[in-house]
Sequence to fold (335 residues):
Amino acid sequence: MKRLLKNEGFTLIEVIMSIAILSIVSAVVLQLFISSMDLNNKSRTIDVAGVYAANAIENLKALTSEEARVIKQDQEWLYDSDWQLINDNKSAQFKLVVKLRENIDVAENFYEIQSKMIDQKTDEVLVEYITGHYYFKKE
Amino acid sequence: MIRMLRSERGSTSILVVIFMIVLMIFGLSILTTSISNTRLAEKKRVWLSEYYLLEGYTARELAMLDNIITKNKNETVTDLENSLIDEDARSQVYIKKIIEDLENQGYWVSLLESELEKELVVYLEIKENDSEIPKHLSLDLKLIIPDDLLSDDDFLNNANFEIAGHTEWQKPFDFEESIKFEDPFENPFEEPIVNE
Fold:
């Protein structure tokens, strides 16, 4: 009780030292949090990019051979940083490029499919899936 | 010494250090979780990429099998039209010819017959020959052939192809003979075989 009633507080040097140490440590700890956030964002980007790329492949596989034959050009979809589909190439961060090529050397109606998600800001290929599909008996 | 311990000078610094350690532990655990997240995402990407490659190879094999069977069908139809084989035996002749043709192309084929349907199982093995496929992969393709195959005009469309399943396995690991393992299936009541 006597101690509590004492008027002695912290000295100025104590307070300054504490603030200094706390700031240095906070800077390090905050850096850890920022790195975690970056890593989490990266994982999320890879995951979402993978889902969109796989989805594009599955959509193509669901076509009939007649529908697949009509697709001559590479397909492109643009997404902003929140993965919303947009049309403006300048503000798009991600680009999904899907290629469909018939490989007659293997067989008629056998198509090679490539689906690639590109980060336009860094030109990094986030995911790239290559597969083949045979449009059998779907007419 | 006791006086030093009783003195409260510098207690703020100790509090700060404890607070700092707690924050550090918290930050490090979050960082570890994030690194695991990234590794999982990376693994998923690699797995899906390998899966699609495998599916592509399967589709390629399916296309080639279909080519062989279609070619075979046309030849068989012409042969059967000019022969006196009765309708019931047509299916047998057709299947026999398919099996011969597939075996000539290097496929492992086996015919499973049940009361309801005949299944032609084609075993394929994709071996590692480039860096794109790091594992040994084996594919089992099942071709279901209805019994009344040749009595239908459009019989090829009645023959269903489906991928029954595929298995993949890792490269066998190097076995060290110096390590002795217990045999979990050893019968304790059986008398051990003594080598003379």
Remarks:
- The mean pLDDT of chain B is 70.
- Chain B has three helices and four strands.
